[in-house]
Design a protein that fits this description.
Shape: elongated
Largest sheet: 7 strands, mixed
Organism: Streptomyces lonegramiae
Structural class: alpha/beta
Low-confidence stretches: 272-276
Helix content: 25-40%
InterPro entries: DUF3097_C (IPR021447), DUF3097_N (IPR053883)
Protein name: DUF3097 domain-containing protein
Length: about 280
């Protein structure tokens, strides 16, 4: 019996199958229908089928179905497929760049502490160095203001096994902050700072999707001025969440902050291991 091809399209009009390409993270493709170009962030299995999330150079995310011939790779039509699970070829790293210890448990907090100047600073440190700090048993607390630092140091009573590290915003010579830092600095107290008016500036503009942090005239609230200059809503709390969500690892931070935080961690952990 003769077999009939159910596809009535003439053979000379049929499209050749597109090559299948694994949708590996960071692969840059263009969606054929919308022209949206971005790097692969993740693949997911949904009730409607497999989807891929792309991120463009401005940080915008779009989700697309992984349909046949649905994407362009270097100008060539391809079909994205879910990447195969592969055995890890290198140690996993934490957001700070340290080698992750899969079986390690958080240690009992040591006596040493790190203080940072504000809640946003504390959240940013947790975002990047949180895994490292838990392994080392280091607690991060925040100051309400630099003026409170001398009293905190006196109450803390630093010593060889209870070292204190402090991160200060806009620590430049000749300022009130520098005078207070000099007053409390000692063998067991390390005060370091970054040059930025606010820790927002320590996040690279490219990570946030802006060309640069705007200059805010003296006399204006800096955060409010930044939101106004960038055309963001005036809610500075929402603005900070937008900035914080753009930080995935140490690569999103300026070196002037990275080095200072690493100094503080080294300082407070030099007095011996934390408890088990």
């Amino acid at each position: 019996m003769r077999q009939y091809d159910p596809d009535l399209t003439p053979p000379w009009k049929r499209q050749a199958p597109a090559p299948e390409v694994p949708a590996d993270p960071d692969l840059v493709v263009e969606e054929v229908t919308t022209g949206f170009c971005g790097a692969v962030i993740r693949c997911e299995k949904t009730a409607e089928g497999a989807t891929v999330t792309l991120e463009d150079r401005f940080g915008k995310h779009r989700v697309f179905p992984m349909e046949p011939r649905g994407f362009l790779l270097e100008g060539r039509v391809v079909t994205l497929v879910r990447p195969r699970a592969a055995a890890p070829t290198a140690p996993r790293r934490t957001a700070s760049g340290s080698i992750a210890l899969p079986q390690a448990r958080a240690r009992v907090a040591r006596a040493g502490r790190i203080y940072v100047e504000g809640r946003h600073d504390a959240e940013l440190v947790e975002r990047v160095w949180g895994d490292d700090l838990r392994i080392e048993g280091v607690v991060v607390e925040y100051l309400e203001g630099i003026d409170d630092l001398p009293a905190i140091v006196r109450e803390f009573s630093p010593g060889p096994d209870a070292r204190l590290g402090v991160l200060v915003d806009h620590l430049v010579p000749g300022t009130k902050e520098s005078r207070i830092a000099a007053e409390v600095t000692g063998e067991h107290v390390l005060v370091v700072g970054h040059p930025y008016i606010d820790v927002w500036e320590a996040v690279k503009p490219s990570s946030v999707g802006i060309p640069a942090w705007p200059t805010v005239p003296r006399g204006q609230d800096w955060k409010t001025g930044v939101c106004r200059a960038l055309g963001w809503p005036g809610n500075t709390g929402a603005a900070w969440q937008r900035i914080l969500s753009s930080v995935r690892s140490y690569r999103d931070l300026e070196p002037a902050l990275l080095g200072r935080v690493e100094e503080l961690i080294d300082h407070v952990t030099v007095g011996g291991p934390a408890g088990p």
